[in-house]
Amino acid sequence: MPAPVFGATDRRRGWVVALILTAIGAVTRFINLGSPTDKGTPVFDEKHYVPQAYQVLTGDNWLEDNPAYGLVVHPPVGKWMIAAGEWIFGYDAWGWRFMSAVCGTLMILIVIRLVRRLTRSTLIGGVAGVLMICDGVSFVSSRTGLLDIFQIFFVLGALAAIVCDRDQMRARMHKAFVEGRIDDSPYGPRLGFRWWRFGAAILLGLACGTKWSGIYFVIAFALLSLGFDVATRRAYLVQRPWRGVVVRDLIPTGFSLGITPVLVYLATFAPWFGSETAVYRYEVGRQIGTGGPFSWVPDAWRSLWYYESGVLEFHSNLTNSAGNHHPWESKPWTWPMSLRPMLYYIEYGPDKCGESECVRAMMFIGTPILWWLALPMLTWALWRMVIRRDWRYAVVLVGYGAAFLPWFTNLDRQMYFFYAAAMAPFLIMGLALCVGDILAAGRRARRNGYEWKVISVVGVSIYLGLVVLNFMWMWPILTGEPISREMWNMQIWLPSWS
Known about the structure:
By secondary structure, the chain is mainly alpha-helical. It contains 18 helices and three strands.
């Protein structure tokens, strides 16, 4: 009978490695955080969210009630996060990017600890940390006052909690096995209240309260959690594991990962409910009739539904067929390899690059040596999950799929590569697992010659070195530092990058 894994024995070393790498990541995220700007103003879509966040900070009830926007198309949590930085540092680039850098730094720590828990290896967790530090998508997301970084932060935290819940449930099941209670019922034992899963639900509600696409992760992680429950009951030879999950786990999972995120999402609109001036707060009797089959619903809830339906209509109409086009838009099949990045900022003119004409540009782009391996990684992950029943790759694929696959449901919609930001941590986790498999294969092949272990270690070391070098090479176009025209042309590796 499999015993639960309660954690690696080198916990202190694991935390030391994680904290050192997180500190290094913090340096990269915070150094010169206030640059670039558009003559002191926000760049790209910061121009939407930064002033909205400042309005939240300076208005009443932490609320966006400025009718000049016509319609605020994203929930408030991400703008609260930006506003927190503006409250500390004021209305400047440091202020509106501070919380992005904080969350981006903490994501490095989460990825390290999560991968370490998946692999029970401090080394592979450290590898994941190095890859996360050097990923251009995660890096630029951490240095701009946009919403995606906050949603990814909450999603990653939720996934880490789901994995912790898996380990805790295995520990509880093992205790029941040792005590001889497994066969008390053909469905297996009850597992008690699951605080880790409840915490994941709260974080998923905050993810939805940042951007609606968080709902995809709610569904995906609920299914993942149920899959873990089936695997746990089967591992301990419960007589009817599938039915046991239906009887014991389905309803609690529905309450935790189904209802709780909805309640948290609605709670984020508490300032809206408490305001007298919020957009669409009192639409019953104006845009909404007072009668009808839903007249029994309180006016505030009917007004909120009207508001949310307007947001849905706004997003539904952002289609190419409706005439919405942008020179930097892309479709999701280009995202895994970062074939069509986004240009967030560019400025030409004499500067401190040593040339008469310089370029200052900030591109939202994945580090090629990471992102160009996405398809091999996904292929290997599918094989490991389906053929070898490796649950670790299931974690990666579920997260990656939730971030990627839903965008194929409406290809007419106007889309951009920054929608792929949520794919980055799962790509990194998958690559780290692949590195672990390479090192493990080298160790297993030792019986056929010591050189295979050396080759695997050297190969992985060279790859990590190339990742760092690739990140250093791209640093100027990720941070908006001045470079010459010649250097700018050398940074553009593919025609689709320009």
